Structure formats: C-alpha cells, structure tokens
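tool=predict chain=A
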Amino acid sequence: MYSRTVSESPESIVADGTAQFGTFSNPPQKLDIKGIKAPFGGIPIPAFLTNFRIKSRLAYMFSIGDYIGMVEFFDDKLFGLAEVIFWYRSTGKKFVYHTFMLPRFRFVPIRLDKAACVNHKKSRYIRISWNRKRDRISLVFSVKGDASRPAATGMFVSHFSDPLHSELVVVAPAPTTRRCSASWLTAMCTEGSLNLLAGKKTPAVPMRNTSGLAFMVMNRTYYRYHSKSKMMCGLGDYEGRKLLFRFTMTNMDSEEADDCNENVVVFDGKLTPMPAVTITHPFGSGKTWIVQDTESMVDLTFTPVSISKRVLSILVMRTDYSAIFGTFDGVLLTGTGEKLTLKNFPGIVKKSRLRI
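tool=predict ok
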C-alpha cells in the first residue's frame, strides 16, 4: 500500500536559495517561497522580477446545514480577486458573488500562526482569519444581493484544538526542482450559520447555529505563463463519521508527484497523504468525471449537479474556470486499509485555466 514520509517542517521553506521539498506534519511560521536562486532556467534574473511569477490562493470549502460552497481569494500581486459561491444541496440552486480588489502590498498573507485575508468592500465583505494563540479559524462574509440573487451573510468558526482538526504542509517541485509550490492544508469541523436575507421578491432564509465541515488551503506557486488545474473536494458524513478528501491535478505537477502532492483523505480527524491521481472528464465537464490513482486507493466518479462558469480578462491576464457542485460515487481506501464505499457523497470540483 502507498505510504509517504511525513516529517517535521524546517524553519524556512527556502534555505540558501533552495526549496526544502517534502510533506510536513506541522506548519512553519511562514508560507513563503521567495528567495529561490535563478528559478527560471538557471538565468540570474533579479528577484523582484521573478517574485512577480509567484501567485497565491486561499480557498475555504465548507459544508454546513443545507449548503455546500467555497470562498476563494486569488492574489496576482498587482490585483486581487475574491469569490463566494454556494449551492442549496437539495435543489442545486447556486448563489455566486464576485469582487475585484485594487493593488496593494499583499492580499493573501504568509504567516501561518496569525493572519487574515480580507476584502473590505461594503457590498462584498469577506474575511478568512486564523490565530493559533486564540485557538481560532474563522470565515465571515456579508455580500449584497441584486435582482438575481439575495444578500447573504455567513460566519463559521473552527478551533485548532478540536480533536478532528488536522493539517499538513506540502512543498513540491513546480514542475522542476528550480521552482516550487507550497501548500498549507487544514481540515476541520466548524460551527456557524449561513443566512439568506430578505429581498424585494424573496423571503429571508435564516439558519440556526449548526455544525459542519470545512477544508482550507493556502497555496503559493511559481506559475507558468499558461497554467491548468483541476481540484476535487468532498465533505460530509460517512456512516456517522466525518470524511473529507481533496485531490488535485495541474500542469505544474512534477514527474515524481507520488512523492510529494496535495492529495489527502481525512477520516475522523486522521489525515492520510494520498498518491498522485488522474482526473478526467471524457464526455465534457458537464458530464461524469473520473478520478483514479495507480495504487488502487482512489476510484471515484463525480456527477455534476450545478455548474458556475466565468471568464475574466484583466490587462494581460485571462482566466476561465468552472465551479461545480455534484456527488461522488466509488471507493476510497484510507491509510489504515479501511475501504470506504461512497454513494451520492457531496462535493465540489473546480477546473481553471490561467494565462499571465
């Protein structure tokens, strides 16, 4: 059965101009990949130029009450993007809220002990924050509605000390060892509420404080000029136990992706690093997706229920992506060899392409 070495994290991800590759059980103080010497073809380009190729993302996937969704920040150095999207699980109805953030020093923070990522617009207030001393991870948003969607508010709180909380840091080649991708993965239980506010034609849909699941990922990568990625995340209960999993596939993965990748399964708080996977949709992204590995630990299909597509062009940057709510069916194998047979298990898929 597949296994991977998980070790203590180094003090710094980059030391003496070289990335410290590996899978680490505890986070360093900062998720910072600046300082790599000559990351592009060995050419000694000034650091302030190569640093512009570092892009950052912070994503918070959640499943709570009748809703499943995702909040995501993208930091392009010169500007930022943020999105709140969630679905009503029983009907597949989607609610999508976007915002554009003007230039500032940094949108996605680098500190892993205490930090916040915030969009301050009154019509799109979004904040993801964490503080280890206060034992708290939180998501707060308040988004204004319009004729096609109601206003909504949400607040979710998790705790580092929760027995079901688990985290992992992965530093991998991207795709060569001259460049790297660093990710902080956090799986957790959460408590809070998501409320739809009353509009001119729609009634309020309040939610009492309830429990749910969340998966947070912060990533920094030296991006290619053209990048592609696919991400799958499942969150829910399996026979009365908490199950979360996340699989990714990008054109920046290294050839030895089995040794170092972001794929994980978290079952009742026990986190298992997983092998590299292949994610395909042979009949189109609106039809059945397939995710499999070569170690017989992952064999799943994903059936879309509701799709949100967006194309955005800003200066020389162009991105198009699809966020999809649907259900997983198939088999997962945990690190202890336990076989999990999934049927109509809720989850989210995101497919994106980016040109910078």
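The CA atoms of residues 162 and 189 lie 8 Å apart. The mean pLDDT is 94.
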